[in-house]
Amino acid sequence: MPERIKNMATSMSRLIITKVLAVSVISLLMAAATSAAARKEDSAVRFMRQATNALISAQRKGSAGAFSSAIRTYGHYKDIALRALGDYRRALPRKSRNTYYKGAVRFISRYAATEAPKYPVARVTFPPVAQRDGRYVLVDSKVILRDGTEYDVQWRLLQNRRTYKVIDAKVFVFGLDSNWVTTYLTKLFQDYIQEHDGKVGALVTVLSRLP
Known about the structure:
Elements: H1 3-40, H2 43-61, H3 64-74, H4 77-85, H5 97-115, E1 121-125, E2 131-133, E3 136-145, E4 150-160, E5 163-172, H6 181-195, H7 200-208
Antiparallel strand pairs: 1-3, 2-3, 3-4, 4-5
Helix pairs in contact: 2-3, 3-5, 4-5, 4-6, 5-7
């Protein structure tokens, strides 16, 4: 092979190898960037994205059953129900707990189905990072209604093995702090017990009779 042709072949080979290496490096960098972006969003935020999607879906269906399914899947409903009793929790017989849990979920679901149409949600956005506060994980979000109204909502989660469960939420109106949502549930349940001579069984019974 003439020296000139040999040199050209060598140059072309080097050029091809250089391009292949360049493409490979770029591909690796793009893959790394994509992987880093995926890792950047907190796992608690990803969980809340799924939870709010389920709640928005339940709102559009408009049924208590749809809300019940979302609450059972994403909510720590047993913890919510027990904390709502406060000191009356000790008076709840263990054999009545499952009946009480079912009744509490039914109550929350019916309330949500009744109130949700007043606040039709278009979408929910999240910053990528959650906050750790002792045993709790706090996830901030912005809820945007269809009319453009925006609310800042903070979700309180408990880590449950490899996933999370929602135990509370707080709505900030005009930037002002407010009570956690379960505060209102606690008041409703405990007021009912007090009105019935401190008998937790009265609350369990009325909740179990909800359609």
